[in-house]
Each structure stands twice: as C-alpha cells, then as structure tokens.
Amino acid sequence: MGAEPLVALDLADTLMTVTTPSTDLIADPERAEVWWGLQAVRLPRSPTPDAGATRQLRAALRDLFDAHLEGRAPERTSIDDLNAFAASVPTSPRLLGQDPTRRETRWHTEHGGNPALAAIASAALSSALK
Fold first, then answer.
1. How many CB atoms within 10 Å of residue 106?
2. Which of 77, 94, 86 is nearest to 129 (CA)?
3. pLDDT tens digits, one per residue of 14-52
4. To 10 degrees, the CA torsion angle through 108, 113, 118, 121?
5. Strand, coil or helix: what is 75?
6. What is the per-residue pLDDT across 116-130, written as a single tens digit (0 to 9) for each?
7. What's the burial of 47, exposed, middle or buried (CB within 10 Å: 0-12/13-18/19+)?
8. pTM (two decimals)
9. Which residues share a beta bridge with 103?
10. Can you tell me the distance from the alpha carbon of 34 to that of 39, in angstroms, rounded to the nearest whole number?
C-alpha cells in the first residue's frame, strides 16, 4: 500500500479482487488509519475520512480505472460520484508573502466535505482527462 503514483490508484488497490471473496485492506479501522497515515504527505491536511464515504469513492475509482483498461465507458453513477467528491471542498490559490512563486491551495472546509477525498477525486478526474 502506498506505492502507486496516484493516491487514487492506491485507494482503488485497497480492494483486492484477485481473492475470493475480495479482500478489503482498509475494512479494519486500525488498518484504515495506517493507510491514511501513509497517504498524508500526498494529501491536504484533513481528518480521517468516513469509512462509508471512502468505500463509495473507492468504488467509483475502481470503475473509472477498470473502464479504462477494458475500453468501456465508466458507469454514470461513478462519474457522478467522482464529480461530487471533487466538488465537495472548494479550493482557492493563495500567495504566501510577497514572493508570487510561493503559493498554496486553500481547502474551504467550511462548506463541508473532506479535503483528502476531494483531492483524490480531483486527481483521478485530472488523470482521466489525459
């Protein structure tokens, strides 16, 4: 866990479908905490996301990536879920001090949502556009 170039791929890989039944590597809350801890350096600061929301995003990501590999369109519900997660926490750029090259992204959590889930969905959508 934690070796993929995109956190979205890492999250999709937390459900191992090569076993019968499938193995959920983050079903246990303690293992989920470990996984989110490993990803923390690649994500905006946020509380650990709700397990149900994490599974919902993971399902949408798996469908997006599987669709790409299988040469088919993703399910409409997966696209809707990805769009909703990506839009759940608005962002804005911020300059840091007087040097215009020093910037950061502000995650507006006052509108709800979880910045980590929003960042993962946004990155997946960006990669799907390439």
1. 12
2. 86
3. 999 999 999 999 999 999 999 999 999 999 999 999 999
4. -150
5. coil
6. 999 999 999 988 766
7. exposed
8. 0.89
9. 95
10. 9
Other Cβ atoms closer than 10 A to 107:
21
Report the alpha-carbon distance of residue 114 to residue 52 in Å, rounded.
13
Cα–Cα nearest to 11, from 108, 123, 129, 128: 123
Extract the runs of DSSP E, i.e. beta strands, from the chain.
15-16, 23-24, 91-95, 103-107
Q: Which two tokens stand for residue 106?
A: 């502000």
Residue with token string 């608005």: 90
Helix/strand/coil for 120: helix
Measured distance CA(101)–CA(118) in Å, rounded? 25
* Furthest CA-CA distance within the chain: 57
Can you tell me the distance from the alpha carbon of 113 to that of 95, in angstroms, rounded to the nearest whole number? 24
**25 exposure class (CB count in 10 Å sphere: 0-12, 13-18, 19+):** middle
Helix axis angle, 76-87 relative to 51-70, nearest 10°? 130
The token pair at 116 is: 């980590």
